[in-house]
Every structure is written in structure tokens, then in C-alpha cells.
Design a protein that fits this description.
alpha/beta, 16 strands, 28% helix
Length: 392
């Protein structure tokens, strides 16, 4: 009888384990890529991707959550896999849901398909939908969590923030010169950034539920704020255009008031009705104000109530300062142009930071060349304070 070499056997087992881990990581990475295809079309639901392998580890099904109210990622992947899913593994970026909403629970579909293992990256923090892993385990399905969790969280940051903090996820975007100016001394700002950078901003808009500007930016630039997209893009596909206009100074001819996309004007709650008569037919919301203008907390609470889960902040330095002061900036996307002005408005106005020790420190997550510019993406090095909306 042949004697087995214990050292060789151990090495083979180690290689097998490493190969299995590599296959798991590859499948989850693919699921995260698939989830990103739903950005801009799934809100108020999360973006989710799913990959299914058969009993031998071969990929037999892929899917992602394509649109709110439509089938979830697991359902699409199971449909693609068919009977090959039996005895296989599902890799999902978010814990499979265990409740019935506009669609049925994904746990039931996974159990019925005969899967023997489910690997998910991030536990579901929504109490109405969580518990999927426990249901799967009770049905005899092995479950594992945490694989590529950081990447999966980053891709689903808007929805996770909305659930955990009760407010939308905020991306502050700006374009500036290398010396930090967003406008020249005479107020001119078109165009600091390159055409490629401006096109990239439309991608950011398309991924957001709402775009916010202040009345100052509106008066200076009269921006349109709609996504310049493919033919057939309807107003329903566009992000909500939100204008913070405490005293209702917006002109009836402003471009944001056309029918290309929905628009919401936020005015001070104590503003007299006479001040808004010129905006008949425009949707208004009255909100409390503070020293910065419209209360950021109140605004975000109202937007969250309306189902807005992600916001692109496109206002000027004053509005950006108000959001930073409120601890309500989750990501910064800066387009830096190879231009020097030496004078003019800086990118950020008063943000309530009086000393260097109180500065909002950022961690750079990406640096990319866009046309002639550099796009820098950064997130707070520590959680913003306050992290959640205050209750009143």
C-alpha cells in the first residue's frame, strides 16, 4: 500500500484552501461590479449584485438590482442559473432580504433553488429586511459574511448611510484652480474645469437622487442641473433639482424651473406668502433657517422623507461651508484645473472651523486624470459630527 506523505498532503490542503478563497474573492468582486450597474436607478432601494456558482464552482448565473420595484439581484441571478444553482453557492453584496415588499423575500427563492451556501459581504442594517442569514441557516444553508465588506460598503454607501443615519448621503463636488479658487476676482467662473471634467459631473448627477444649489449660485450661473444623457431620458429619470432660496429670490425664468427635471425650492418657513407669488405652480417647501440660511438638518430630513438617499451638492462656497459645519459631507470630489488666479472666491467659505486642530481631515481614496484636470476623491478620515440628524 502506498504511504501518503503528510507534508505533501498538508501542502495540497493548503493550496486547496487558498484556491477556494481566491475563487470566493473573485466571485464577490464580480458581484460588487454588477451592483454598481444599478447606481442611479434603484433608489430608495440599495444597489446589490449577485453571482451564483454551481456545485463545481463554475459561474452559472449573474444579476443585479436594476430598478426599484423590480426583481432583486438574487432573483435575476437565479433565473440565469436555472437548475444549475442546486448544490451551488450564491455570492451577494448585501445580506439577502427576508421580507415581502414590492417583491418576495430573496431567502425563500435561494432556499427553493437548492443552494447549499450563501456568502454575503454586508449585513442588512434595515430592521424590516434583516434576518435573512438566520432564515437561510435554519433551512440548512451555510452562510458566511464579511468577504470584501469594505468594497461592498463603499459601493452601497448612499443607501447604508440613509438607513444608519436617517439622512441622505452627501457628495460635495466642486471645480477649482490649483490655488483653490472657484471664481476670479470679477466673479467669472466659466470655465475653470475642462470639458471632460464637466462631462464627468453629469455622471455624478445621474448617480444622485437630488442635486442641490443655493440662491447665490443660481443668480451667478443660472445652472440647468439636469443630466445630459442619452436620447429618451425622461424627467422621471432625472435627479430632483433642489434650490435653497431663503427669501424666494429666484427668477421665474431660471433654467431650473423648466420641465426637463423635477424641481423643489426650499424657502424660509416664516416667509410671507406674497414673496412667493411669482413662483405659482412651482413646488415649494418651507423649512426653518439658521445663521447659514436654510437649516441643513431640516432640509436633509425633508429630503429623506421624500425618498432621497443620495445628494450631489453643487452649490458655491457658502452652501458647502454650511454642510461642512453641519457634519453633513460624506465624500468630496474636487476637479483641480492647471490654472492660477491668485484672487477670487475660495472653494470653501466659513465652515465653523476656527483652528487647525478642528480641521476636517480627509482621506484620499482616488486620484484620476480627467482631461487636463485632476479629479481627487476623498472621504472624512473620521465620521462627521454630528453623524445623524438631530430629532426635534
Amino acid at each position: 500500500m502506498r504511504q501518503e506523505d503528510p507534508v505533501a498532503t498538508h501542502a495540497d490542503a493548503h493550496d486547496s484552501d487558498a484556491s477556494a478563497r481566491e475563487a470566493d474573492t473573485s466571485a464577490m468582486g464580480r458581484a460588487i461590479e454588477l451592483a454598481a450597474r444599478g447606481l442611479g436607478s434603484t433608489s430608495p432601494n440599495p444597489v446589490v449584485g449577485c453571482v451564483i456558482t454551481d456545485a463545481s464552482g463554475t459561474v452559472v448565473g449573474e444579476g443585479w438590482h436594476e430598478r426599484a420595484g423590480g426583481p432583486h439581484a438574487e432573483i435575476h441571478a437565479l433565473a440565469a442559473a436555472g437548475g444549475a444553482a442546486r448544490g451551488g453557492t450564491a455570492y451577494v453584496t448585501l445580506e439577502p432580504c427576508d421580507h415581502t415588499g414590492r417583491t418576495g423575500p430573496c431567502t425563500g427563492a435561494l432556499i427553493e433553488a437548492g443552494l447549499t451556501r450563501v456568502v454575503y459581504a454586508v449585513p442588512d442594517p434595515n430592521p424590516q429586511a434583516s434576518g435573512g442569514a438566520a432564515t437561510l441557516r435554519a433551512a440548512g444553508i451555510a452562510t458566511e459574511t464579511g468577504l470584501l465588506a469594505e468594497r461592498a460598503e463603499e459601493g452601497n454607501a448612499a443607501w447604508l448611510t440613509s438607513v444608519r443615519l436617517g439622512r441622505p448621503y452627501i457628495v460635495w463636488k466642486y471645480a477649482a484652480t490649483l490655488d483653490g479658487r472657484v471664481a476670479a476676482a470679477d466673479g467669472t467662473s466659466r470655465w475653470i474645469s475642462s470639458p471632460e471634467s464637466r462631462a464627468d459631473v453629469h455622471r455624478l448627477r445621474a448617480e444622485a437622487d437630488a442635486v442641490i444649489v443655493g440662491s447665490g449660485t443660481l443668480r451667478a450661473d443660472d445652472p440647468h442641473l439636469a443630466v445630459r444623457g442619452p436620447a429618451g431620458l425622461t424627467a422621471a429619470d432625472q435627479p430632483l433639482r433642489v434650490v435653497l432660496d431663503t427669501q424666494a429670490t429666484i427668477r421665474p425664468t431660471a433654467r431650473v424651473l423648466d420641465d426637463a427635471a423635477p424641481t423643489l425650492i426650499a424657502v424660509a418657513e416664516n416667509l410671507e406668502d406674497a414673496a412667493t407669488r411669482h413662483l405659482a405652480g412651482v413646488e415649494l417647501v418651507r423649512l426653518p433657517s439658521d445663521k447659514h440660511g436654510i437649516s441643513v438638518d431640516a432640509l436633509l430630513r425633508e429630503l429623506h422623507r421624500r425618498g432621497v438617499r443620495s445628494v450631489l451638492l453643487e452649490g458655491g462656497p457658502t452652501l458647502a461651508g454650511a454642510f461642512v459645519a453641519a457634519g453633513a459631507v460624506d465624500k468630496v470630489v474636487g476637479y483641480l484645473a492647471p490654472v492660477l488666479l491668485g484672487a477670487g472666491r475660495s472653494a470653501l467659505a466659513d465652515a465653523g472651523i476656527g483652528t487647525l486642530t478642528d480641521a476636517l481631515r480627509l482621506r484620499i481614496t482616488e486620484t484620476v486624470r480627467i482631461g487636463t484636470d485632476i479629479r481627487i476623491t476623498a472621504v472624512p478620515a473620521a465620521p462627521s459630527v454630528p453623524t445623524a440628524l438631530k430629532e426635534h
